[in-house]
């Protein structure tokens, strides 16, 4: 993912320039279109906030990233339109201050999903649960690891998913490449089976049991 940071930065800059140009020519845009753009920006931003809070997304990482980019552009547009209100010295200063965090790493990083290759196929757990195992690279195989994204997919809307847990394991703890997830016998929790390395014992077993009921 780090590889795509420069590309994501360029996308964010271009997106910001496009929003600034939209603000410059705002009064030249037909009133009905301005009305639609304003309400669309509010709706997209609210939906993104709702998605973040509730952890509901679509099953497509690229579509989620595209909607996230639209939410960032909507936020910028609303700030620039806010700067038109009086007193302008105060609203402009407030808009600049609120715009600066847009270029932080926490905002930029999700945009890298626009360029990431498709994730490995999800693995079904049953009971409408599945998980995705996304390896990450630290540059040292001894400390590499993976994130395990556990989702619930409602049967009435298979294009949506709800993130339940996101456990993380590294090779310091066990052999992550051989790790898998399965239900415990009580069907109320999940267990990550991560075999230890031959030359050292398994550590930090507290992270291997995940309640889901």
Give a written overview of the molecule.
The chain is an alpha+beta fold and 213 residues long. The protein is 38% helix and 21% strand. The chain folds into two domains: 2-114, no CATH class; 123-211. It has helices at residues 5-24, 31-54, 61-82, 88-99, 105-108, and strands at 56-58, 123-126, 129-136, 145-152, 160-165, 168-170, 180-183, 189-193, 209-211. Strands 1, 2, 3, 4, 5 and 6 form a six-stranded antiparallel beta sheet that branches. A three-stranded antiparallel beta sheet has the order 7-8-9, with no helix packed on it. Helix 1 packs parallel to helix 3 and helix 2 (31-54) crosses helix 3 (61-82). The relative contact order is 0.11. The model has no long low-confidence stretch (mean pLDDT 91).
Q: Report how far apart the termini are.
A: 32 Å
Counting DSSP E segments of at least 2 residues, the number of strands comes to 9
Give the low-confidence spans. Answer: none
SS strand fraction = 15-25%
Oligomer: single chain
* CA-based shape: elongated
Q: Please summarize the sheet with the most strands.
A: 6 strands, antiparallel
Kindly state the percentage of residues in helix. 25-40%
Alpha plus pi helix count: 5
Radius of gyration: 22 Å
Question: Based on helices, strands and strand pairing, what is the structural class?
Answer: alpha+beta
- Calculate the mean pLDDT score and round it: 91
Order of helices and strands: HHEHHHEEEEEEEE
Number of domains: 2
């Amino acid at each position: 993912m780090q590889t795509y940071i420069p590309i994501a930065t360029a996308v964010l800059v271009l997106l910001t320039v496009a929003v600034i140009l939209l603000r410059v020519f705002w009064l030249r845009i037909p009133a009905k279109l301005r009305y639609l753009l304003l309400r669309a920006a509010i709706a997209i931003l609210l939906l993104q906030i709702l998605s973040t809070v509730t952890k509901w997304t679509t099953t497509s990482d690229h579509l989620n990233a595209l909607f996230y980019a639209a939410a960032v552009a909507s936020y910028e547009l609303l700030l620039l339109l806010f700067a038109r209100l009086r007193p302008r010295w105060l609203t402009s200063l407030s808009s600049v201050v609120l715009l600066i965090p847009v270029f932080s790493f926490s905002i930029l990083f999700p945009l890298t999903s626009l360029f990431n290759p498709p994730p490995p196929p999800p693995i079904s757990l049953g009971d409408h649960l599945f998980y995705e195992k996304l390896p990450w690279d630290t540059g040292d195989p001894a400390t590499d690891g993976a994130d395990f994204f556990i989702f619930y997919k409602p049967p009435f809307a298979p294009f949506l998913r709800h993130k339940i847990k996101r456990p993380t394991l590294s090779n310091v703890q066990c052999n992550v490449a051989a790790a898998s997830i399965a239900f415990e016998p009580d069907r109320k929790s999940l267990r990550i089976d991560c075999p230890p390395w031959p030359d050292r014992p398994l550590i930090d077993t507290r992270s291997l049991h995940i309640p889901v009921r």
